[in-house]
Predict the structure.
Amino acid sequence: MRFVPGLVAVALLTGCGPEAVDGAPAPARTESVQVGSASMTPTLWVRENVTFRSVVPGTYRAHPGDIVLFTPPPAWRVDDGHRMILRVVAAGGQTVVCCDPADHVLVDGTPLDEPYVHAKAGEPGGGQQRFGPVVVPPDGLWVLGDNRAEAVDSRSAGGGGPRGAVSAESVIGVLDPPR
């Protein structure tokens, strides 16, 4: 590679590293976002700044457990331009229901291990809001907050049921590193 000072300066100012100059893929873009609600407490705290790895619209592939930044669907009746942060628990074609006798969310009949959930059954504000069974639409995601007592999520937003699902195309970013 031949060193071209002006080109490297432009690459650094635009957020691209030297790899992009050589034609290799540029590093992933990131976005810092301030948490605006208690939906993800204690994993993410209100006013905490967190970094999301940007996702090209329409390219997100669901990974249960991912914490995603997304634009809520119109059925959720959230202000225009508002973005939300929640955790993916199920994806298109999966069946999600709450709860088994131990108060676990089940995906395709298997209870989820969710050590991150705030306020477990028997604790103040604990327990799960019952829902389902819901078959998540083909391009959909079922997203829940870690603070189930406070979160507005797929259980109730948009009227719940299939209307509570979020389109995978609406995902803007994935928390990086994961928690």
Summary: The mean pLDDT is 80. Residues 35-175 form a domain with the Umud Fragment, subunit A fold (CATH 2.10.109.10). The first strand starts at residue 30 and ends at 34.
